[in-house]
Write a structure and sequence with these properties.
Blueprint (H helix, E strand, L loop, with lengths): L24 H26 L5 H13 L8 H24 L18 H9 L11 H26 L5 H13 L7 H30 L5 E4 L7 E5 L3 H11 L5 E4 L10 H4 L4 E4 L7 H7 L3 E4 L15 E4 L8 E3 L5 H9 L11 E4 L3 H6 L1 H9 L5 E7 L8 H9 L4 E6 L13 E2 L2 E2 L1 E5 L4 H14 L9 E6 L3 H12 L6 E3 L8 H11 L2 E2 L3 H9 L1
Parallel strand pairs: 2-3, 2-5, 3-4, 5-6, 6-7, 9-10, 9-14, 10-13, 14-15, 15-16
Antiparallel strand pairs: 1-8, 11-12
Helix pairs in contact: 1-2, 1-3, 1-4, 1-6, 2-3, 2-5, 2-6, 5-6, 5-7, 5-16, 6-7, 7-16
Bound molecules: iron/sulfur cluster (SF4) and FE4-S3 cluster.
Length: about 550
């Protein structure tokens, strides 16, 4: 195997024997093969669009299948078999529709890929289509191609979440299929690939906008909400991942059962949505970020439902308590395809639950774009009057590698006349810090999940408009932490928006060559994080 798509890749280079995330070589091969099959499907879909043929189911499938290959989503080899078969079925149906119109081009090999009949054969096929087997001779182009592929995985995740909530836009499916089809080409130069990386960023902005419309359309705009970190006596279910619809279904299915629902990880911001927080048994939040789940899930006295990434190998202590739904999977963990969460509720009832009420304090969530813009006048006055000197967006993924304490220390050291906006699971490094407020404006504003990056972009654009300047001229600095490929997509979106001077850590992506990195430094002034003191000094002068 050869995988370097995430931040924790082995030795900062690539996972070659087994994934640091737990991904087995056979799953790595199946994921590589699925990406190859999707390149073929995309090639045919692009040609079909040109001929006026469009298959919405194939488009939705493209996003779901790409999302399945994102870090910490699906570790179950068996689940990749139907994906590979469906991919070929969609592709052949499109080809047939094209042939009916008299379009029968000579297809690239990827568009003629025939899956082997068994798992061993598929794994062997996957090994022949890994990153190392890419015929691209130019290392920098290869680096940008992989960047685009990882960006597409992020866009696919947002598209999938949005589609579940009834939001889609064919132009985004068209963009990711065109980009995927292009990754098969060997005739594009470096400049063309830089442009494609930005195209991917632009497609992602639209995908995030769709998801924002899906979430706020279905559940209302997040409102500032206090979330208890302690427990309520009684049976309990913990829900993790990012999917709001799954949470809503779980809340509906547990209403009146006496089972309380707790969020974990990226589900924390769900407490701010009016249509979710209205449930009396939607109690509070338990635990921190994904990389602590082994300890936290082992100690949780109820059942656990994973709706998306990030899942880790479950320990024996909770193997019988954890369930998956949607695209997430782990071999041996019961997968609930049909959204009947009865088995989770049954398991929660068998388990002891919390013996008594506990008070562990609380945190505030719900500072999405609507809530922040509602107080925009106060914020602008505070900046103009000198009460607020600077904003920091300290956002992104959390992870297991050392070096991420930088973000905790950074937030602790931010001067008292500055405001910290945050989103995504990296916030768990500092989410419960009591930073106080500036004239009633909290100094720590939780904008939401990584899926709410659009909200932060809208806030920045609104501030720029209010101050009649560009985003890069605002008293705003971005200090980002990355781990998986949604973060790659967001980074490409920020570059596409022309945002400069981003600090990125804890380490830079292994898939970027020195030349590509230099390009980013020269054109966008991207820089690696150093130390909190040094970075704060440089930013604040
Ligand atoms: Fe390694 Fe990350 Fe790939 Fe997992 S996803 S195999 S940790 S690079
Ligand atoms: Fe986290 Fe997986 Fe990226 Fe949603 S839960 S931000 S890492």
């Amino acid at each position: 195997m050869y995988c370097y798509q995430c931040e924790q890749t082995a030795k900062g280079q690539a996972c070659t024997k087994i994934g640091v995330c737990g991904k087995q070589p056979e799953v790595a091969a199946l994921q590589d093969l699925l990406v190859y099959a999707l390149q073929g499907l995309s090639l045919v879909a692009v040609e079909a669009r040109r001929a006026g043929v469009n298959d919405e189911a194939a488009n939705v499938f493209t996003a779901k299948a790409m999302f399945s290959t994102l870090t910490n989503v699906n570790f179950d080899p068996e689940r990749f078999l139907p994906l590979l078969r469906d991919c070929v079925t969609y592709r052949e149906d499109l080809k047939a529709a094209l042939a009916a119109k008299g379009v029968t081009p000579a297809w690239n090999e990827a568009a003629g890929f025939v899956p082997a009949p068994d798992l061993a054969g598929l794994v062997a096929q996957g090994q022949a289509h890994g990153i190392e087997k890419d015929p691209e001779p130019n290392a920098d182009i290869k680096s940008l191609k992989q960047t685009v592929i990882y960006g597409i995985k992020g866009v696919a995740a947002y598209l999938d979440h949005a589609e579940i909530l009834g939001q889609s836009d064919d132009s985004v499916y068209a963009s990711i299929q065109e980009l995927l089809a292009d990754t098969l080409r060997l005739d594009l130069d470096l400049g063309a690939w830089v442009q494609r990386a930005l195209d991917c960023g632009n497609a992602n902005i639209r995908a995030m906008e769709l998801l924002d419309a899906g979430n706020t359309g279905a559940y209302g705009h997040p409102e500032p909400t206090r979330v208890p970190l302690g427990a309520r006596a009684g049976k309990a279910i913990l829900i993790s991942g990012h999917d709001l619809r799954d949470l809503e279904l779980l809340l509906q299915q547990t209403e009146g059962t006496g089972v309380n629902i707790y969020t974990h990880g990226e589900m924390l911001p769900c407490h701010g949505y009016p249509e979710l927080k209205k449930y009396g048994h939607f109690h509070g939040h338990y635990g921190t970020a994904w990389q602590n789940q082994l300890k936290e899930f082992s100690e949780f006295p109820g059942a656990i439902l994973m709706t998306t990434n990030c899942i880790q190998k479950p320990s024996g202590a909770y193997m019988d308590n954890i369930f998956t739904t949607g695209l997430v999977g782990w071999p041996g963990v019961v997968h609930l395809e049909d959204k009947d969460f009865g088995p989770v509720i049954k398991r929660a009832r068998e388990l002891p639950g919390f013996a008594g009420d506990t008070d562990k304090g609380s945190v505030m969530v719900g500072f999405g774009r609507n809530a922040v813009m509602n107080v925009a006048g106060t914020v602008i006055d505070a900046v103009k009057g000198g009460a607020i000197r600077h904003f920091f967006l300290v956002a992104g993924c959390d992870g297991a590698k050392p070096g991420r304490n930088y973000y905790t220390e950074f937030v602790e050291k931010v001067p008292e006349d500055c405001v910290v906006l945050t989103l995504a699971c990296g916030k768990f490094r500092f989410f419960d810090k009591q930073l106080g407020d500036i004239g009633g404006i909290p100094r720590l504003l939780d904008v939401g999940q990584c899926n709410d990056a659009y909200s932060a972009v809208k806030i920045a654009l609104a501030l720029a408009e209010a101050f009649e300047c560009g985003v890069n001229d605002l008293p705003l600095s971005l200090v980002l932490s990355w781990y998986e490929q949604k973060a790659v997509a967001i980074l490409l979106s920020l570059l596409a928006l022309g945002v400069k001077d981003i600090r990125l850590g804890p380490s830079l992506p292994a898939f970027l060559t020195p030349n590509v990195l230099n390009h980013l430094v020269e054109h966008y002034d991207i820089k690696p994080i150093t130390t909190p003191d040094e970075d704060l000094k440089t930013i604040l002068g």
